[in-house]
Amino acid sequence: MSDESIASNSDAGAPIAKLQRDAGPKAWLQRNILTVAVGGVLLILFAFFSFTADAFFTSANILNILRQIAPTMITAVAMTFVITTSGIDLSVGSMVALSGSLLAIWTNGGMESTLALALVLLIGGLVGFVNGWFTSYRGLPPFIVTLATLGVVRGVALLITQGYSTPIPTDAWVKVLGQGRVYGIPLPAIIAVVVAVVGWFAFTQTPYGRYVVGLGSNYESLRRTGVNTKLVNLVVFLVSGVIAALAGVIVAARLASGSSNAGQGFELEVITAVVLGGTSLLGGRGSVLGTVLGALVLGVIANGLVLLHVSPFYIQIVQGVILLIAIFMNTRLFSRFGAAMR
User: Would strands 166-167 and 257-258 be described as parallel, antiparallel, or unpaired?
Assistant: First the structure.
């Protein structure tokens, strides 16, 4: 047999061998180790607070956790796409404040709720478009661009509200988005589940999801295949803006008022949920399921600490520590485990 034949046979067998390696349970565990880990942490926390806080393991409290964590989960799903491309969106917290403030001001001024909601989501998309345009078509770092829009958007929210909260009228149907229930389940939780399912499907079952992963793992190779990488990246930021605006609407509707102070530190909570769930800050690897579990971990911790009468000021400290641990696990433990599995 000639050398060319041997090379040809080897090349033909390589994809098959790779598929066999990628299809086994060991390969699946290697790819999803952080998602499995955060799921285990969630179960441990759930068991711990169930034994230490009397009111934790009740249907009312579980539903309350889902309602409270819904805005974070919704935004974190979109942030998973952003971070997988090796980007970041720091403007989501400010967008929560602006969207809630605009919704309250417009409905309080007599605007019909449906129109107000549509305009708020449109503005969220506009902010996302600005972020995506500067990063995709002008090559500016996402961190710098979204840090700038963070300040601009928060400043606009402060300007239009003058620092005061604005109530949402009692007859505005949009309040249902934050306070409504369907068969006893909070509507924000249902919206979060829908967004998570759609996000999971788009991320794992569509070419767009593969393009998002490709942007973070090998941008140049993806571009050379003919994919419009700039447009893909632009859409990622645009969707992030719209979803952040939706989260702001839910927050304002739940509180029945819009405030320019809403969403303080929200971006930290969202990024923590994403990284905790196994999405790499360096791009190229993401998990929507992991993000959902990461958001639930944060919600359980916050709720459990309150029930244990721990000062709420400690919650942000805990979130910062969790983010640090998550980054360490994401960068060091994953690579070590992956090398051991190979």
Answer: antiparallel
Give the residue carrying structure tokens 């190779």. Answer: 221
Q: Tokens 């060319």 belong to which residue?
A: 4
State the residue for tokens 């447009």.
231
Centroid of chain to Cα 64: 20
Residue 4, in any domain of the structure: no
Residue 24 placed within a domain: no
* Structural domain harbouring 149: 31-341
CA distance 204 to 208: 9
Q: Based on the structure, what is the number of domains in the chain?
A: 1
Chain centre distance of CA 334:
21
Per-residue pLDDT at 100: 97
Q: Output Rg (C-alpha) for the chain, integer angstroms.
A: 22
Which amino acid is located at 126 in the chain?
A: L
Contact predicate 266/72, CB 8 Å: yes
DSSP three-state, residue 184: coil
Is pTM beyond 0.85? Reply is yes
Q: Which residues pair with 181 in a beta bridge?
A: 186
CATH of the domain at 296: 1.10.3470.10
| Percent of residues in the chain assigned helix, strand, coil, to nearest 5 | 75, 0, 20
pLDDT tens digits, one per residue of 4-36: 433 434 444 444 444 445 556 766 666 777 788
Calculated CA dihedral for residues 35, 36, 41, 44, nearest 10 degrees: 150
Residues of the chain with pLDDT under 50: 1-20, 338-342
What is the structure's pLDDT at 319?
78
